[in-house]
Amino acid sequence: MAELNDWTCEYRGLTVGVPDSAVSIVGVDGLLSLPEVRSSDLTLVQRNGLWAGRDYLSGRTVTLTLEIYGSTREEFTDALNAVQAAFMPSLEGAEEFPFRFRFPGAAADQTAYVMARVRRRSAPLDLNFAYLTCNMVVELFATSPYINGDAPRVHTVRSIKRAVVPTGFIPPATVPWQVESQGTTPDDPVTRFTQYGSVAARPVVTITNGASPLLIDDVTGQSFGVNYDGTVVIDSAAMTVRNGQGGDVSGFITVGSTWPEFGPGEHRLRLRSRNEYTSAKAVFTWSDRWV
After folding, report:
1. Which among 4, 150, 242, 248 has the fewest CB atoms less than 10 Å away?
2. How many angstroms separate the CA atoms of 224 and 128, rounded?
């Protein structure tokens, strides 16, 4: 999708807040607020306090206050119709649509979205109409509490590639002999990045040209290894490992491995492979999320 400009939002094809447009943003509530927390604490019988249970997040309510203004009657009418058409409830199903926004500072200063549907739309027909102005309040509800980064994050880390030093001898034969010997061991390449979301990221990792690859996060000290040669796809959220043909190779996960997870903040990744003469590559993909 196209990147939004600062102080704009978009829902079902309608972009709000564009300079000199007929629809402006007055206020937005619910993007920085924490959704309602559902507690599973249990009451203790004849004892003080509660039995601590796990907390869960309910859905997220986003309230938009819009101002519709037209310099002419036709412009005002067209803008009002466009807002009414975009912010229609999902009466024939439970389909949610992306409410995309870009507000400086929010969602790490990038375009983000929530999947939501219209639950309320309020606009008094008052004296302001005579001046071609209407203030409208729209309430969107997202069943998921998460705000998602619009563009996926992609980072690549490679293993070392040791130089091949030819040695040996060439006897009086048609085919020369060449023996690979170890050159100087280079330092592990390090990939540095920042995970901006407030929720820990569980990436999908695709490793190619690997021989028993081992992923290491120098910040957390955690690692994840697979005793398998070739392409592997690690889905941290689903906790699966598959080869290039889609077969399950989860049984080859090395003992002591921790599924890749990136908390908020800085990270430093390294990749090691048993075959040091071929550089393995790992591509990490995820979307930042906030609550």
Report:
1. 248
2. 63
